[in-house]
Amino acid sequence: MRLLLVEDDGDVAETLTAYLERQGFVVDRADTLAMAQDALLDNAFDLVLLDRMLPDGDGVSLIGFAEAQRRPQRFLLLSALAGIDDKVTGLELGARDYIAKPFEPRELVARIRVALRDRIDAVREIKRFGPILHDVESGGFFVNDAPMSLRRSEALVLAALMAREGAIVRRETLESRVYGYDKFVNGNSLESIISRLRKALATKTDAVKVSSIRGVGYQLVQSD
């Protein structure tokens, strides 16, 4: 597998290149956006590791450049810009993943291998509500950049609530999402799931809560 590493810090680039080559990758390097653009036009890569803060601009613009030149590419962003807005921007623009610096090289290799499983022209769907981010394809949830572990039933409910972006979701819809359309559901089952979900959210953030609409359903709300 051939990778393009776009990184202007020479020490970081040299160390990372050596590590990746020991893992069996072929690594080309570019220090600037201009060099990276030339590399994409002249070569075929399996994935681009892309720093954001480059001498001649924001590395994320390389994603748009590749699209404009009809050179579809897998991008994995590596950046010290670790805020939720930075991550969402990168993912929404087409990056497959976003790893905040500093990072563990073994984790980077694992994420590279996951990204390589996708078709090179695949588009990820990302949902966001307040500090919560949902990668629809992988099913993963993140709160303020930190992964949030949920049981399957809680994840299905949260995904359904986030899909409606704060609108009320009827309890019947949530029950069918968890149990299927043709199953008898005990009246307290959904309430138990909602209770566990609320506790899970409370351990990560106080900015988003699950609100009950009596006799109707539930919705996500942002706290003042």
From TrEMBL:
Gene3D superfamilies: 3.40.50.2300, 6.10.250.690, Winged helix-like DNA-binding domain superfamily/Winged helix DNA-binding domain (1.10.10.10). One of its GO terms (biological process) is regulation of DNA-templated transcription. It comes from the Bacteria. Pfam families: Response_reg, Trans_reg_C. CDD domains: trans_reg_C. Residues 124-222 bind DNA. Residues 124-222 form the OmpR/PhoB-type domain. One of its GO terms (cellular component) is cytosol. The keyword Phosphoprotein applies. Signal peptide: none annotated. Keywords: DNA-binding, Phosphoprotein. The keyword Ribosomal protein does not apply. GO terms for molecular function: phosphorelay response regulator activity; transcription cis-regulatory region binding. The modification 4-aspartylphosphate is found at residue 51. Residues 2-116 form the Response regulatory domain. PANTHER family: REGULATOR OF RPOS, TRANSCRIPTIONAL REGULATORY PROTEIN CUTR. This is DNA-binding response regulator. It comes from Sphingomonas pokkalii.
